[in-house]
Design goal:
This protein is of the alpha+beta class and 234 residues long. It has one domain (4-224): L-fuculose-1-phosphate Aldolase, CATH 3.40.225. The chain has seven helices and seven strands, in the order αβββαβααβαββαα. It has helices spanning 9-31, 89-98, 111-119, 128-134, 150-159, 181-202, 212-224, and strands spanning 41-45, 51-54, 70-73, 104-108, 140-141, 166-169, 173-178. It has a seven-stranded mixed β-sheet with strand order 3-2-1-4-7-6-5, sandwiched between helices. α3 crosses α6, α4 (128-134) runs antiparallel to α6 (181-202) and α4 (128-134) crosses α7 (212-224). It is globular, with a radius of gyration of 18 Å. Belongs to the aldolase class II family. AraD/FucA subfamily. Pfam families: Aldolase_II (PF00596). It catalyses: L-ribulose 5-phosphate = D-xylulose 5-phosphate. One of its GO terms (biological process) is pentose catabolic process.
């Protein structure tokens, strides 16, 4: 294992900041009721390195601290003694190795989205908020057992070339990706929100997917126009 004390100062500083951020964002998973007990996890790349920070295995959310976050290489191997990393670490690491644009991965078992996963059914892009955030249906990935990189392989195979930052791994739960941990957590929150809304709508009758041209227009507006933009006067 590589001693963290040997890291260059700028790398050590980036690592410290990443540990603090990843630890703090786990509170958002409980705040939005996306996880129960010790399930679920967040990981993020350490900028400028081949390291990731991820939740320790089996530790309750109230007991998480920045120091308990586990530092691993891109093959999921811890680089220091301490807590064991999440049982999903190999899956996260596979995503980072094969999707270099991804800066963070989040995993939850949020109720409504996981119910769609249990059915092996994609959530159809039937509401404008879904078109904004996902730009498509939320797809279903293949079933895979926990513990190795098979889940990661399914995530990469399903999301490569897909607009959606979320995938429902069949009979398992939700994985989301993002440029950083905050954006991946947002995707997990929004995934559960739209899964719940579309589920409730279907209780009253058929739900129809938005026309593709409307999905494209909504996605472009939200991704490129919506919100405050640097360099604008209003």
């Amino acid at each position: 294992m590589t001693a963290l004390s040997t890291l260059p100062p700028e790398t050590a500083e980036a690592l410290h900041a990443t540990r603090e951020k990843v630890c703090a964002l786990h509170a958002e998973l409980t705040r939005w009721n996306l996880v129960t007990w010790t399930s679920g996890n967040i990981s993020e790349r350490v900028p400028g390195t081949d390291l990731i920070v991820i939740k320790p295995s089996g530790v309750t959310y109230e007991d998480l601290t920045p120091a308990s976050m586990v530092v691993c290489d891109l093959h999921g191997a811890p680089i220091e003694d301490g807590c064991s990393p999440s049982s999903d670490t190999d899956a996260h690491a596979y995503v980072y190795r094969h999707m270099p644009e991804v800066g963070a991965v989040v995993h939850t078992h949020s109720t409504y989205a996981t119910a769609w996963a249990a059915r092996g059914e994609a959530v159809p892009c039937a509401i404008t908020a879904m078109a904004d955030e996902f730009g498509d249906d939320i797809p279903v990935g293949p079933f895979a057992l926990i513990g190795g990189d098979d889940i990661g392989r399914g995530i990469v195979a399903t999301l490569t070339g897909h607009r959606s930052p979320a995938v429902l791994m069949a009979q398992h739960g939700v994985f989301t990706i993002g440029k950083d941990a905050k954006s991946a957590v947002k995707a997990a929150v929004m995934c559960e929100d739209v899964a719940r809304t579309v589920h409730l709508a279907r209780q009253h009758g058929p739900v129809h997917r938005l026309a593709q041209e409307h999905i494209d227009a909504l996605y472009d507006r939200y991704q490129n126009v919506y919100g405050q933009r640097k360099g604008t006067d209003s």
